[in-house]
Amino acid sequence: MRALIIGAGIAGLAPAGALARDGWETTVLEQAPGPRTAGYMIDFFGPGFTAAQSLGALSNLREYGQFYTRARYVDAAGRTRAQLSMDSFLNAAGGKFFSILRPDIERGLREWVGHSTDIVQGAKVVSLDPGRYPDSGAPARVTLQDGREFGAELLIGADGIHSTVRSCLPVSAGGRQGTGPDRFLRHLGFHVFGYVFSDAALAARLGAEVLLTDSLTRQAGLYALPDGRVTFFGIVACDDPDPDTAMREDLFARFRGLGPLVDQALERRPADMYEDFVAQSVVGLWHHGRSILLGDAAYAVSPLAGQGASLAVAGAELLTRTLRERGNDLSTAFADYEAAWRPVVEEQQAAGRRNARFFVPPNRTSLLLRRGALQRMNLRGLNAFVARRAFGSVLPTKGQRAR
Ligand SMILES: Cc1cc2nc3c(=O)[nH]c(=O)nc-3n(C[C@H](O)[C@H](O)[C@H](O)COP(=O)(O)OP(=O)(O)OC[C@H]3O[C@@H](n4cnc5c(N)ncnc54)[C@H](O)[C@@H]3O)c2cc1C
User: Fold this and answer.
1) Which residue ranges have their beta carbon within 6 Å of ligand 1?
2) Does any domain span residue 54?
3) Could you give the number of structural domains in the chain?
4) Residue to mutate (ligand 1; options 162, 230, 274, 301; most atoms within 8 A of CB)
5) Locate the FAD-binding domain: which residues (predicted)?
6) Of all residues in the chain, what percent carry a pLDDT higher than 90?
7) Which atom of ligand 1 is nearest to the CA of 105?
8) pLDDT by residue (tens digit) across 153-205?
9) What is the 3-state secondary structure (H, E, C) of 333-354?
């Protein structure tokens, strides 16, 4: 049985390795010419951590994992306005937590997948037929931009938030209006930037602390890596879901003046920066025929939920396990997987929307509330409750942590 996966991101690589181990002949089609190197530091915890453990991929990811001692919220004059101990967060996550660069998650998963899967780079899918099931003579088929065609008994659309596979499936946009691929997106009113650059002096200054800005309508953050690299992320309020080049430059410039270290990081912006509007996928049904959507294509939660990578791995583990347990009966497996997984991701999407004012305070009252909340947080006892409110049921309860 052949499985075709569109997209070699986290949601594409995770099912590729799992299906190959279950005996599927697995091919991944990725539009980029090589591994994607853009992106920033992600906190990896929650269901993806446990799923990576079940898949046997956790050690490949941990190899690139980083640990930070605390996050410090600093104003433009360099004064610490609030802070958060990472130890207490680690405790709230039951010890199942590390930080990792987004490209390093891909790197770890590629190493885990190894030679079990054929990964075809420079393969941009432009159209597809989702196939019919159980009709064995009707495989799913895709056509690439260069005219090549591929067919398979199972097709997974893991091609991210602007998914082409999603626009080719006869699925509804969950009641949303409009046309084009982005009709499936709920725009949250922010734009995000992220990149990695080398600056040994800045990295040494930051050390094992995460620097976050105590700022209104935008939030910048810096993490150092032990090899002298630094990763920058910035989220800024923006009502336009499709800003033009000049406006994007203007949005990027809004991080200037948030402090000398941030200014230094802005000067080091590389060409391969990650940049996108902040949105969530809203898709009425994730599957049709022999095809199913996975990861951001189906259920992007947004960087405000901080769980995109974790939910990509966890969704992949659940989908492939359900396929195995249902004897590869696609109809039953797809329906059971979607029924079990949809409530989990919808809860995370709600948490992401709730968190927006906390991550990017829109006014001075919200900023002061955030300072107060952070000062009270030690995430044990009462603050484990706060953490669970922010991240939903992806964090273990006190009883689960004790186990
Ligand atoms: C370059 C990049 C950098 C990112 N950086 C961050 C970050 O720093 N922080 C953060 O929170 N999130 C980031 N994200 C989003 C984050 O990776 C996802 O939220 C999460 O990991 C879920 O991953 P995914 O595999 O579903 O989607 P994605 O990571 O978006 O992966 C989708 C993959 O599909 C490929 N693809 C798309 N269309 C086609 C097509 N038609 N044919 C073939 N291949 C296709 C893309 O090139 C991409 O490799 C980034 C995404 C990308 C692509």
Assistant:
1) 6-12, 29-32, 36, 38-40, 42, 102, 123-125, 158-161, 164, 194, 274, 295-297, 300, 303, 308-309, 312
2) yes
3) 1
4) 274
5) 3-344
6) 79
7) 21
8) 999 999 999 999 999 998 887 777 677 767 899 999 999 999 999 999 999 99
9) HHHHHHHHHHHHHHHHHHHHHH
